[in-house]
Design brief:
ABC_SmlMolc_Importer, transport, five-stranded antiparallel sheet, Transp-assoc_OB_typ2, ABC-type Fe3+/spermidine/putrescine transport system ATPase subunit, binds adenosine-5'-triphosphate, 2 domains, Rossmann fold, nucleotide-binding, alpha+beta, about 25% helix, six-stranded mixed sheet, OB fold (Dihydrolipoamide Acetyltransferase, E2P), 8 helices
Length: about 350
């Protein structure tokens, strides 16, 4: 049986349904990201696992135990909020010791050992005597993390753990979180609205949309084949093309929004008609020299230098298509360009997730 099992969990607030019959499982040691736009229900789902909210229907099982009606402290889970919620009148050591005291049953010397170990894991061994106000934001965040892991929870729950940090620190902490997860193997569920963070950290990405799970897959899986228009759009980096698909004795072909004809790969599962396709921005090249590409002409509308790559916005095929890549030639805004992609780079999308 899976380590965490959420079955048909529904949560309403008055007339509003925040979660619709959520079914989700995670294995021991999984690192799961709950990803989605503001208001999609990610925090509510996390709070239901933590026991801070009770579902109206459905069950939550952790390590083989039905915890649906158990109080948060009886679940052996740890929840870390974005605000860290450190106790200001306690030192770092006392803050980290707090869950062990609450849990009880561990002699003081064993507590000391565990606190030391947790502070070591987040690289704060020297700061145990300080108070939270004497720490930087990043250090406070590490203390909160040490406090969350010290009691070896069955599930570690992180609600937007990095959102209060500046970009640089965030990247460092991403590396840190991943390392910590690899060292401890704690089953971890974390909430984020940042798709790059979800892709960088998790082994499983659960994309939520309006109280439902839109898609659950590995980071690579959801990136390469998001499945739906919403997922392709949210995971980022995707052009979404509307193509009218036709089939003749010569194979599949299509027309873009303005009638521009293009050849297509083999989409044997697709009915003829209008469909939407994903075309990743990094798979579109501007003024391609490779003649094997599907090439259409367009007008360069904008160009942004992003450091390692350049982002070009081209009006072509009746819509704007974005290309991100290495462009060396100087091209004039408003000028004619050719863009190209490989036939297999077009990935069909469903309008909505199958329910
Ligand atoms: N206590 C509550 N009472 C009424 N509505 C609530 C309550 N808690 C959450 N909601 C609503 O449920 C929906 C889901 O909220 P939730 O906090 O889970 O979203 P979220 O995906 O975590 O969003 P965000 O990224 O903005 O935190 C929202 O529309 C929210 O307004």
């Amino acid at each position: 049986m899976s380590h965490l099992v959420i079955s048909a969990a529904t949560k309403t607030f008055g007339a509003f349904t925040a979660l619709h019959e959520i079914a989700l499982t995670a294995e021991r040691g999984d690192f799961v990201a709950l990803l989605g736009p503001s208001g999609c229900g990610k925090s509510t789902l996390l709070r239901i696992i933590a026991g801070l909210e009770t579902p109206d229907a459905g069950t939550i099982e952790i390590a083989g135990r039905d915890v649906t009606r158990l109080a948060p402290e009886k679940r052996n889970v740890a929840l870390m909020f974005q605000s860290y919620a450190l106790l200001p009148h306690m030192t770092v050591t006392e803050n980290v010791r707090f869950p062990l005291r609450m849990k009880g049953g561990l002699p003081r010397t064993d507590q000391d050992e565990k606190v030391e170990e947790a502070l070591g894991l987040v690289q704060l061994h020297d700061l145990g005597g300080r108070y939270p106000r004497q720490l930087s934001g990043g250090q406070q965040q590490r203390v909160a993390l040490a406090r969350a892991i010290v009691a070896e929870p069955d599930v570690l729950l992180l609600d937007e753990p990095l959102s209060n940090l500046d970009a640089r620190l965030r990247e460092d902490m991403q590396v840190e979180l991943k390392r910590l997860h690899q060292t401890l193997g704690l089953t971890t569920v974390f909430v984020t609205h940042d798709q790059t963070e979800a892709l960088a950290l998790a082994d499983t990405v659960v994309l939520m949309n309006a109280g439902r799970i839109e898609r659950k897959d590995s980071p690579e899986g959801i990136y390469r084949n998001p499945g739906t228009v919403f997922a392709a759009d949210f995971i980022g980096g995707a052009n979404i093309l509307t193509i009218t698909v036709r089939r003749s004795e010569h194979g599949w072909s299509g027309t873009l929004a303005d009638g521009t004809p293009i050849p297509l790969g083999d989409f044997s599962g697709l009915a003829p008609g209008r469909h939407r396709f994903m075309l990743r921005k990094e798979q579109v090249s501007v003024s391609p020299s490779d003649t094997g590409l599907i090439a259409i002409s367009g007008t360069l509308e904008a160009r942004n230098f992003l450091g390692g790559v350049t982002r070009s916005a081209v009006r072509a095929g009746g819509q704007q298509i974005i290309a991100v890549g290495d462009v060396t030639e100087p091209l004039a805004i408003g000028g004619e360009v050719t863009i190209g992609w490989r036939r297999e780079d077009l990935v069909p999308l469903a309008e909505t997730a199958a329910r």
